[in-house]
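Quick question, first post here. What does this chain look like in 3D?
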Amino acid sequence: MALAIFDLDNTLIGGDSDHLWGEYIIAQGLVDEKAYRRQNDEFYLAYQRAELDIDAYLKFALSPLPERSEAQWQRIHQGFLREAITPIMLPKALQLLDKHRQQGDYLLIITATNGFITRPIAEALAVDHILATDPELIDGQYTGGYLGTPCFAEGKVENLHHWLQDHPFDLRDSYFYSDSINDLPLLLEVGHPVVVNPDPALEQTACDKQWPILDLREPA
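> Answer (accepted):
Ran it through. C-alpha cells below.
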C-alpha cells in the first residue's frame, strides 16, 4: 500500500473551494457583500502570487463562523456542497482517485482550505483521510480561531510528518498531486510528485525537474 496525497482546490475539483465559499456566503446574504468580496478577492490573488499571509487569511475566512452555531453552519454547507462543489467535480479526478483505490493505496487530501469547508468535500470524494487547518470549536460554537500549524506551504509538510508518526508510510514511495507553486515544499518531499493543471510557476518547475504534468480538466 502506497500513500497517495492530493491537494484539493484546482486539483481534485475544478475551482477553489475557499474562494467559492466566500462567494456563496455573500450570495446568501451572510456577510457584507462589498467588503467581504474585496478582501476575499485580494487574498485569493495573493495566494496565486505565492504571497499569502496564511494567518491573516484564516482569521478573515473564519471570522463569520462565530455568528452562527455549528448546526446552522452545517445546514448552510449542505447547500454549498450541492450548489457550488458538486458541479465542479472532475470526472478525470474521480478516475484518478479510483485508480489509486484499486491499487490498494491510501488516499489522503492535504489542503490549505480550512476543515469546516473541506471535510464534507473529502467525504463526498470518499478518500481515507484529510489534513486541513481546523477551526476552533468550543461547545458547538466556533470561536473564529484555528488549531495548530496552518496546513499551508511548509505547514503542509509539518502536518504531514506529524500524521506520519502514527501512519508509517514511506514518502519515497508516495505520490503527491497539486496545481500550485505553494505546494512545492511537499512536492519535493515525495518520491512521485505529479503536477495537475499547474499555475505558470509550478509548470516551469515541473518542466525543469521533468515531473509528470496531468490535465484533469479535459473530458474523461
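The CA atoms of residues 49 and 181 lie 9 Å apart.
The mean pLDDT is 96.
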